[in-house]
Design goal:
heterodimer, A: 346 residues, mainly alpha, two-stranded antiparallel sheet, 13 helices, B: 49 residues
């Protein structure tokens, strides 16, 4: 059975996969895009189609998520534009470094090690903070509910240090903070450098950087990061689409599913004690880094089956975390009992 | 899909990205309405009301 020339079973599978990704995206504010491209590659799609369709999906998802954060007053447009400028410059320099590594034949090795190290490092950092503080501090992704002013008070020490450098011009950011323009551009440049070097969107680098290095309250960091992804994802997918690499039969059902999943994930943030789940997110990033390492090893020793193992680890980790979110939400709703005041799902 | 399998070049790319953008906006509005209508009912059902 076909719909618009595409098998209904394929549309349903992509929509289901989209719900899973959207749940993570809606709950944590990041963590969706790195699932799509590897999955499409393992399914046998050409690399350019997998990357282009993944980017177009990220563009659509970020549009929806940015609109939601805009409604909640969690997007700092001025900061977003500055981040776009700094990140773009960083990406260009990162690409130059990558081309240099390609010329001397070390690109694949260095990029793979850096990617695994970074993903694993952030995973360890978030997990360690979650376990150490037993719910205090660390990256909280409870962006939907947290009050911006309240969140601004929970600034990491390193961010306070950066904010203490009064190199003019200073600019105000949401949450009533003042930060040097040069510090913002510096952090944006550094995260762009990593993005260009690693060839990834960079959301999982930029969002923690906005919080830990600049001190942007988490809800605003998530909203502003998403605003930036609208542009980077839009431009990236447009460039790939010019070569005919974007496949709407993949993007349309994925987006339909993820938009629903993102609603459910966002609703869950108002129910679940997010600190309970934070440790799972750190573990998911860690498993993600292991999955990338497995895939790279499979490439080196020419064992394609390790690609499937890699995907199974990523999808398994995603299902584990999203399952934990859903179960915790339902448990919390049941604990509220029939007499509780009806709470909006959003 | 939508007869755009071979869409390429600036015009084809603009149409494709435009479709993704329109779909995103429709989903945002559509699911928003759905959530406001069905959300409280589903939440009540899960609570056991």
């Amino acid at each position: 059975m076909e719909l618009l020339g595409v098998a209904v079973s394929m549309l349903a599978m992509f929509a289901g996969f989209g719900v899973l990704i959207g749940l993570l995206f809606g709950f944590f504010g990041m963590g969706g895009s790195f699932l799509v491209t590897p999955a499409l590659l393992v399914m046998g799609y050409r690399t350019d189609v997998a990357v282009a369709s993944g980017l177009a999906f990220v563009f659509g998802t970020s549009v929806i998520a940015t609109l939601k954060h805009r409604d909640l007053g969690q997007v700092d447009y001025k900061l977003g534009v500055l981040m776009i400028a700094g990140t773009t410059a960083g990406i260009e320099v990162g690409k130059i470094g990558l081309h240099w590594l390609q010329d001397i034949g070390l690109a694949n090795t260095v990029v793979s090690i850096a990617y695994v190290g970074l993903l694993g490092g952030i995973g360890v950092f978030i997990t360690y903070n979650a376990l150490k503080s037993d719910g205090e501090g660390g990256v909280s992704h409870d962006a939907e509910d947290m009050d911006v002013e309240e969140a601004a008070e929970d600034i990491p020490d390193i961010a306070k240090k950066i904010q203490s450098y009064n190199i003019p011009p200073m600019m105000g950011i949401k949450g009533g903070l003042k930060v040097s323009l040069w510090m913002i551009l510096g952090v944006a440049f550094a995260t762009g450098l990593l993005s260009g070097f690693l060839g990834v969107g960079g959301g999982f680098i930029r969002m923690p950087a906005l919080f830990y290095l600049i001190g942007v309250p988490v809800p605003v960091a998530v909203g502003t990061d998403l605003f930036e992804i609208v542009f980077s994802g839009g431009i990236g997918s447009f460039l790939y689409a010019m070569d005919g690499a974007v496949d709407l039969a993949i993007v349309a059902p994925l987006l339909a599913g993820s938009a629903l999943g993102a609603r459910l994930g966002a609703a869950a943030t108002s129910l679940v004690e997010e600190d309970d789940i934070k440790v799972y997110f750190g573990i998911m990033l860690l498993l993600g880094s292991i999955a990338v390492a497995v895939r790279e090893i499979g490439g080196v020793i020419e064992m394609p089956v390790l690609d499937v193992v890699s995907l199974a680890i990523i999808v398994g980790a995603a299902m584990l975390v999203s399952g934990a979110v859903v179960v915790s939400s339902i448990r919390e709703l049941r604990a509220q009992g029939p007499t509780a005041t009806a709470q909006s799902a959003d | 899909m939508f007869g755009l399998e071979n869409a390429a070049g600036p015009t084809g790319a603009a149409i494709l990205i435009g479709i993704v953008l329109v779909e995103a906006l429709l989903l945002y509005v559509g699911y928003g309405v759905l959530e406001s209508v069905l959300g409280p009912t589903i939440a009540r059902a899960l609570r056991g009301d």
